[in-house]
Specification:
The protein is of the alpha/beta class. It is built from eleven helices and twelve strands. The two termini are about 40 Å apart.
């Protein structure tokens, strides 16, 4: 397996990216990891920290910033680290790309360079949201596309179900539709039509799911449009940050509360680790003709190492080929009808 990592994408690039790639290379000795970016800077970092034999560098002289307009940046910056990494996948020099950089630019690079799977109208960003049962819920789309049709939500559901089946080894992933109520009559015209399509799809559809139920693990795949999904994700992240900050403040007010804090600290740490995106590492961009993985912009070395683990699982499962095959079955069925 060959994984190209955009070494200059993300808030903590390139130092944390290099450190995470190093750790991953040591842990996954059979995986060839290629750091893409300024060769002089990367070589200097690796000289300081040491480079495993399965860790390599591919030179790229430019970088796409987080605030750049995605399409313009990808088209104009042909030697940016993210663009070069995407070209490596297209040209067969790498099997997958990992980046913590500009999300829009990565999706654009995926579409324009790696390419979209035939039959997929719009690829989707599919992060794993931690849940109380420890299994997580794969939610898509969470920001790649602001709008969606009912037919696109159906494609998201099928791709998400395949991902959980092949990568996470779930025999029958439960698919839920994010909505304002559990009743099938709830929602706008798009979600009502999507409900009807999902009912007859070759997936285990469990109906509408309200946002308040998500963390309880009521479904394994959650389907929604990117606008609603991204708001939901940011709300969950903001709530979690606020709760932990409030607990820290409360446990610091007196000797008694500090003592109480010491007693519950191990449990809180376990809970925080369970809900930490860094443990998951990266979110797949499903619907592209190659494995493209997006890390959180503030990813550290641990997140990058876990992203390599997640990418290895996707490659070993033959994720892209499986989605392509399932889509082909659907097209054949439609043609026969």
């Amino acid at each position: 397996m060959r994984i190209a990592i955009d070494a200059f994408g993300g808030d903590h690039a390139p130092e944390e990216i290099v450190l995470g790639a190093q750790q991953a290379a040591q842990e996954y000795a059979q995986t060839k990891i290629i750091l893409v970016g300024d060769e002089a800077k990367l070589s200097k970092l690796l000289q300081m920290k040491g480079a495993p034999s399965n860790l390599f560098i591919k030179h790229a002289s430019d970088v796409i910033a987080t605030d750049e307009e995605p399409v313009r940046a990808v088209r104009r910056k042909q030697d940016a680290s993210m663009v070069v990494a995407a070209k490596m996948v297209r040209n067969g020099e790498a099997d997958a790309i990992i980046s913590a950089g500009n999300t829009g630019a990565l999706m654009t690079a995926g579409l324009l360079i790696v390419g979209r799977l035939q039959g997929i109208e719009r690829p989707a960003l599919a992060p794993m949201i931690p849940t109380m049962n420890g299994k997580g819920v794969l939610a898509l789309d969470l920001g790649a596309n602001m709008d969606a049709t009912a037919e696109q939500l159906l494609q998201y559901a099928v791709m998400g179900s395949i991902y959980r089946n092949k990568v996470d080894q779930m025999s029958q992933p439960r698919v839920g539709l994010l909505n304002v109520g559990a009743e099938r009559s709830k929602g706008n015209e798009m979600t009502k039509k999507a409900y009807q399509l999902l009912e007859t799809a070759p997936i285990q559809f469990v109906g509408n799911v309200e946002a308040r139920e998500i963390l309880n693990g009521v479904c394994d795949v959650l389907v929604c449009d990117g606008f609603v999904g991204n708001i939901m994700l940011k709300s969950l992240e903001g709530t979690a940050t606020t709760i932990f900050a409030a607990l820290k403040e409360q446990f610091s007010q007196s000797f008694i509360t500090k003592l109480a804090g010491m007693m519950v600290r191990p449990g809180l740490r376990r809970f925080r680790k369970k809900m930490d995106y860094k443990e998951i590492g990266a979110a797949p961009m499903l619907g592209l003709s190659g494995v493209v993985m997006k890390c959180h912009g503030s990813s550290d070395a641990r997140a990058i190492k876990n992203a390599v683990r997640q990418t290895n699982l996707a490659l070993a499962a033959g994720l892209v080929d499986t989605i392509k095959a399932e889509l082909g079955k659907g097209e054949s069925s439609d043609a026969n009808d």
